[in-house]
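Quick one: examine the sequence and fold tokens given here and explain what the tokens say about the fold. Here goes:
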Amino acid sequence: MYQIITDTDSDLAKEYVIEKGLVQVPQYTLIGDVTYEGAEGVDPADFYDQMRGGVEPKSQAINPSVCEDKFRAVLEQGKDILYLSFAATLSGSINTAEMVGKELMEEFPDRVIKVVDTCSASLGEAIIVMKAVDMQEEGKSMDEVIKWVEDNRKHMCHLLVVDDIKHLQRGGRVSKGTAFVGSVLGIRPVLIINNEDKLVSTGTVRGKKKVIRYIVDTMKSKITDEWKAVNTRIGIAHGNADEDANELAAAIKEEFGDVEIIITNINPSIGVHSGPGALLITYFGTSRE
């Protein structure tokens, strides 16, 4: 038996985590002198309003001792561990998980701990985790799940439209050159996670209708017939922008039919970087670029 573990930056719904018996290692958000675990205790509307008001929260990767406690509890149940991680290029959390896993395998030599980079963020990571859960429920082995993840993770497309790119630049997620793209009022920078798993700018768009059209047209170019069957779930994560997210979901359904669309607020530890008003769409496609 093996237990699937992930981190809270996957933006998985709490109800889903409970229903499927998943284990999550928390990422952290620091607002002033207060540290929040995952999205617990943070109201999205209040969080993003604070950012609009000039508050500059910070994010923090997983804690080694907390990760060890989570892993140990599973190992003591006689289970192996498959840890599906947030993109290594965007967080150092995977390094912590690998270190903890290596140490615990010396203590539990009969157990197996595999740490796999999903090369994804937010609902991109979540959709990969959910597919892994589906496969586990179908009776697939850990190695079969890992192979699927490694074969498909570079096809998980992320398209991020932000109101203000300064938050990404401040947190070191994009370069100063990329941040300059978003300096013109009314222009919304568009970013992707590229084939090197780096967050890079691909241009700009102005106005909500054009943003939605741009996203749908980009998806159409990447979701070929081969990938339509893989896209059983599409993710929309947003920075307290419910109306924009719902309009985008309606446009996607009109174009692609009755696909399951997961909509959620971007959790604070990622929202620190994407900022209020951001829209992130995640789906499987021919290529990331």
The chain has twelve helices and 13 strands.
